[in-house]
Specification:
Blueprint: E1 4-11, H1 22-37, E2 47-50, H2 54-58, H3 64-70, E3 79-82, H4 88-101, E4 107-115, H5 121-125, H6 137-147, H7 165-181, H8 185-199, H9 213-217, E5 221-223, E6 226-227, E7 236-245, H10 246-251, E8 260-269, H11 282-294, E9 303-305, H12 311-320, H13 329-334, H14 351-355, H15 359-374, E10 388-395, E11 404-411
Parallel strand pairs: 2-3, 2-4, 9-10
Antiparallel strand pairs: 1-7, 1-8, 4-7, 5-6, 8-11, 10-11
Helix pairs in contact: 4-15, 6-7, 8-12
Domain Thiolase C-terminal: 269-397
Domain Thiolase N-terminal: 4-206
Organism: Hydrogenophaga crocea
Length: 412
């Protein structure tokens, strides 16, 4: 079977881009990836386009990828549109890998683009309302709120302003973790402080301001125990990756020293499980498959980008990925294990909390960061000696876990 390599990555700065449309954002990211790879757009043989919100925000429910790519002169190739909630970008990447492994082509593009920020706040926040079973929305919400039973919610710790329903979901997960393992709000703040500190050195990050733990605890509340800096913002942006087979790497005379090998890609949906059955979490199961495919273990990973839509998300996923025992995710963050220079640096990009979270682009932004790290090109946020990197990207909610989990392992 063909070895698959990432030969080019590109992304826009993440943030509020009211002056840029989907086509412009896509063009910026794809052209950057093409230039980074050293190929021509005519050499792309297939494209996989991730997006979740253009239908909701603009009414463009169909052929989004064909429209965005044709505007920059990419046509006459298969274009597959992917909607997989927050895991759309990583799903596009996984499908591009599968396309190349199948022998259907030698060079493929994976791109994710999202225009989410709007002056219409009601429309903007409601984009997340269908990332769970809308026919059972009230039942699901009530069930999730029971996860945090016996945890007292202090007065004044819920924002009077609109926010995403998924902040309530993560708050429920956080209260459950606090009740079961003794995780503290201060540990959540330690995760957020670490990620905001990392983002200071990322020129593409939406926010580049460091906060202390105490400043994060004193910040405006969203929903207990989450405060504003613990939560990912609404973002616009795009990210892209160009992949090729080992044969194409040689045939196109590309620089093999900057090519990063794809060791594993796993996409897995969730399942019904008991709250206490942590080892059957869809991300934990997907990670085990990915480690087996790559022939490595959690202890071998040099650096990781994980789906921290909130600080609680990072704690949960650091446990699912085997970087610590279940219940210890907050502890390892508080003692510095997951910071740059620590045992297992997580989210050197700043993560979703600080880098931003344009949903369809997020998974490919993780790939962008990890490729940069493995090439040794990350500057002040560089993880010294990085050789193996893992991206975890989840999407939606079904039951008490993500509807889909994507794991990617890359190596030098």
């Amino acid at each position: 079977m063909n070895d698959i390599y990432v030969i080019g990555v590109g992304m826009t700065p993440f943030g509020r881009h009211l002056d840029l449309d989907m086509k412009a954002l896509t063009r910026q990211a794809v052209e950057a990836a093409i230039a980074d790879a050293g190929v021509q757009k005519e050499q792309l043989e297939a494209a996989f386009f991730g997006n979740t919100s253009q239908g909701h925000m603009e009414g463009q429910h169909m052929i989004r990828g064909q429209i965005a790519l044709r505007a920059m002169g990419i046509g006459r190739i298969p274009v597959v549109n992917i909607e997989n909630a927050c895991a759309s970008g990583s799903s596009a990447f996984a499908l591009a890998c599968s396309h190349l492994k199948s022998g259907a082509g030698d060079v493929a593009l994976a791109v994710g683009t999202e225009k989410m920020f709007s002056t219409d706040k009601a429309r903007m926040f409601s984009v997340f309302d269908s990332a769970w079973d809308i026919s059972r929305a009230h039942e699901i919400r009530d069930s999730l709120m029971r996860l945090g039973r016996d945890v007292t919610v202090p007065e004044g710790t819920t924002s009077p302003k609109p926010y995403s329903v998924f902040m309530d979901v993560y708050a429920a997960f956080a209260r459950s973790h606090m009740r079961t393992f003794g995780t503290t709000q201060r540990q959540l703040a330690a995760v957020a402080a670490k990620n905001h500190a990392h983002s200071v050195h990322n020129p593409l990050s939406q926010y580049r301001v460091a906060y202390t733990i105490d400043e994060i605890l004193a910040a405006p509340p969203i929903t207990y125990p989450l405060t504003l800096p613990m939560c990912s913002p609404i973002s616009d942006g795009a990210a892209a990756a160009i992949l090729c087979t080992g044969e194409a790497l040689k045939r196109l005379n590309l620089d093999a020293r900057r090519a990063i090998r794809v060791l594993a890609t796993v996409v897995q949906s969730g399942s019904d499980r008991e709250e206490s059955d942590y080892r059957s979490h869809c991300t934990a199961l997907a990670a085990k498959k990915a480690y087996d495919l790559a022939g490595v273990g959690a202890a071998d990973i040099s650096v990781a980008e994980v789906h921290d839509a909130t600080a609680m998300g990072e704690i949960i996923q650091s446990e699912n990925l085997g970087f610590c025992e279940f219940g210890m995710g907050g502890v390892i963050a508080e003692r510095g294990d997951t910071s740059l220079g620590g045992r297992i640096p997580i989210n050197p990009s700043g993560g979703l909390e600080s880098k931003g979270h344009p949903v369809g682009a997020t998974g490919l932004a993780q790939i962008h960061e990890l490729v940069t790290q493995l090439r040794g090109e990350a500057g002040k946020r560089q993880v010294e000696g990085a050789r193996l990197a893992l991206a975890e990207n989840g999407g939606g909610l079904e039951g008490i876990e993500e509807a889909v989990a994507c794991i990617t392992i890359l190596g030098r």
